[in-house]
């Protein structure tokens, strides 16, 4: 069976040169590029960089590598040689004479011939058998321990080997425990940027590898490879072609009201990890697991609220900090989720009762917060908090979906039609340190002022310009590099959300004993 186009190689065999599907007339020898072959019998699929055909009818696969040729007798390390061995097997399976294979190392500009013998081909077949056995199991293989192979692996952000091994060994951490020093094997931040479209009536199309946003007065372009996700606010149109390209690229598209209310998202096929979703559903049906996770979420939320007050409230009363500390302890020991709801509500009243004390300068004289209210918010600070929480919920929904989890199936927040309950669960511990921090920064630095609010008989809303400025403040916060409180390395807040989502998956699969709370010091 050929996935891409078997006729491509065969027609190349007969007609000459092929380049990414194009075939040109010409005598032998010939070259085919980006040839995708697969075989159900072998259990292999491969996209071969280059296949050279010679006058005697034999072919040679050539693999391109960016690095330099290693100084080893075989000409390349075993993984590279095994890759060429698999390509040789595939070409033979499709009826070609193939007894040689080469690797071109761009770093040293050398083309190295790789010996193809029975030992190498047996190694490839044995590896395929082991992989098939591994795939038939429901549990993941154990992560490697301090292995140099992890450095540079493209799946390191999903595997998280050092983090998983650390959490397996540390069954419990003291509140004031110093972060462990781990290798940061994945990038600190995602270099791709989100695209927010807030202008009513704007239209999004696609032109080549770019998204084209046409507004009333200007047109903006965003390269697809540099886009992390797309958020559409209000009446923004997106073409079917653009939506399909985004799905092909694995870029999520979220739909929100003009005020920031999260309606839902569109994505491609998504994660193939069915076992993780089954584990999530089993855990959601288990009251003990739900209680364990709910305690972790609520305790971390209360402690992070306490940390916010301790950092930013110059005159915070010790009684407030003491009360929050006691509530956090009770949450950690709670035996019922219903009790957690009461403790969380009490802590929220204490925290928001002191929230105005974190405002500084002109903001302290202009704004005040008399408790939390919403739908619609009754005062400017609550309007900012509502938008910040909705934006954070959207971020977590995307992160959980990318990690292979169902954002609608929560453990603390009960499932409700259309509600991203799991995103709301994980948002609990992050509300103070991300969303509240964004609002405080926006008010204290004058990013948002008194004139940026529209007052209605039933509530308060932000002007479109102020909404854009708050979203920019949110992006700055998500891109900020911070020290991970558990692992000790520095990552952006957005990357930290992704790590938390994947560690929750590890907990649900039983690979780590507890879900690690995210509690900045």
From TrEMBL:
<keyword id="KW-0460">Magnesium</keyword>
<feature type="binding site">
    <location>
        <position position="413"/>
    </location>
    <ligand>
        <name>Mn(2+)</name>
    </ligand>
</feature>
<keyword id="KW-0464">Manganese</keyword>
<keyword id="KW-0051">Antiviral defense</keyword>
<feature type="binding site">
    <location>
        <position position="428"/>
    </location>
    <ligand>
        <name>Mn(2+)</name>
    </ligand>
</feature>
<dbReference type="InterPro" id="IPR011604">
    <property type="entry name" value="PDDEXK-like_dom_sf"/>
</dbReference>
<keyword id="KW-0238">DNA-binding</keyword>
<dbReference type="InterPro" id="IPR042211">
    <property type="entry name" value="CRISPR-assoc_Cas1_N"/>
</dbReference>
<comment type="similarity">
    <text>Belongs to the CRISPR-associated endonuclease Cas1 family.</text>
</comment>
<dbReference type="InterPro" id="IPR042206">
    <property type="entry name" value="CRISPR-assoc_Cas1_C"/>
</dbReference>
<dbReference type="InterPro" id="IPR002729">
    <property type="entry name" value="CRISPR-assoc_Cas1"/>
</dbReference>
<keyword id="KW-0255">Endonuclease</keyword>
<feature type="region of interest" description="Disordered">
    <location>
        <begin position="1"/>
        <end position="26"/>
    </location>
</feature>
<keyword id="KW-0378">Hydrolase</keyword>
<feature type="compositionally biased region" description="Basic and acidic residues">
    <location>
        <begin position="7"/>
        <end position="18"/>
    </location>
</feature>
<dbReference type="InterPro" id="IPR022765">
    <property type="entry name" value="Dna2/Cas4_DUF83"/>
</dbReference>
<dbReference type="Pfam" id="PF01867">
    <property type="entry name" value="Cas_Cas1"/>
</dbReference>
<feature type="domain" description="DUF83">
    <location>
        <begin position="45"/>
        <end position="160"/>
    </location>
</feature>
<dbReference type="Pfam" id="PF01930">
    <property type="entry name" value="Cas_Cas4"/>
</dbReference>
<keyword id="KW-0540">Nuclease</keyword>
<dbReference type="InterPro" id="IPR050646">
    <property type="entry name" value="Cas1"/>
</dbReference>
<comment type="function">
    <text>CRISPR (clustered regularly interspaced short palindromic repeat), is an adaptive immune system that provides protection against mobile genetic elements (viruses, transposable elements and conjugative plasmids). CRISPR clusters contain spacers, sequences complementary to antecedent mobile elements, and target invading nucleic acids. CRISPR clusters are transcribed and processed into CRISPR RNA (crRNA). Acts as a dsDNA endonuclease. Involved in the integration of spacer DNA into the CRISPR cassette.</text>
</comment>
<feature type="binding site">
    <location>
        <position position="344"/>
    </location>
    <ligand>
        <name>Mn(2+)</name>
    </ligand>
</feature>
<protein>
    <recommendedName>
        <fullName>CRISPR-associated endonuclease Cas1</fullName>
        <ecNumber>3.1.-.-</ecNumber>
    </recommendedName>
</protein>
<keyword id="KW-0479">Metal-binding</keyword>
<comment type="subunit">
    <text>Homodimer, forms a heterotetramer with a Cas2 homodimer.</text>
</comment>
<dbReference type="GO" id="GO:0004519">
    <property type="term" value="F:endonuclease activity"/>
</dbReference>
